[in-house]
Amino acid sequence: MNALHQYQAVNTQTSVVDVDRHQLIQLLFDGAIERINMAKARINVKDFEGKNRLINKSIEIVSGLRSFLDIEKGQDLAQNLFDLYVYCEHKLFQANVKNDITILDEVLGHLKKIQEGWVGIRKEVIEKGLI
């Protein structure tokens, strides 16, 4: 599933026309983080079917984030993010199999740090006309 479809799955009320690429990626971060937190709650109430759906959706969203990377232009930074996203997808799969909230918290930590950096560069991206 490509990033555009991920976005639509995250927020069906917002039109893609209404957001720029930077905002789209922000929405993907928000969607992944929200679903991981919801999956933690589902584990706590032993709703494993609900947890499974939420974690699988989180994996799809992280895959969508990964699809936005341009390794050629971004070089080492993009490659490191690519590798981290693959790692997060793997850890989400493990958390799903093991019903492990600790693993979900680890992935949340990674995604929140990347998201912070992403939010921090918005002004620079706009000023340079990159979006």
Question: What do the pLDDT scores average to?
Answer: 87
Outline, from the CA principal axes?
Answer: elongated
Would you count the extended β strands for me? 0
List the secondary-structure elements in sequence, H or E: HHHHHH
Largest sheet: none
- Which percent range describes the beta-strand content? under 5%
Query: What is the end-to-end distance?
Result: 23 Å
Percentage of helical residues?
A: over 70%
- How many DSSP H or I helices? 6
State the secondary-structure class.
Answer: mainly alpha
Give the uncertain stretches in residue-range form.
none
How would you concisely characterize the structure shown here?
The chain has 131 residues and is mostly helical. It starts with a helix and ends with a helix.
Mind explaining what this structure looks like?
- By secondary structure, the protein is an all-alpha fold.
- Helix content is 81%, strand content 0%.
- It contains 6 helices and no strands.
- It has helices at 3-10, 21-44, 48-67, 71-98, 101-120, 122-127.
- The longest helix is centred in the middle third of the chain and has 28 residues, at 71-98.
- The mean pLDDT is 87.
Labels describing this entry:
131 residues, mainly alpha
Secondary structure elements and their pairing?
Blueprint: H1 3-10, H2 21-44, H3 48-67, H4 71-98, H5 101-120, H6 122-127
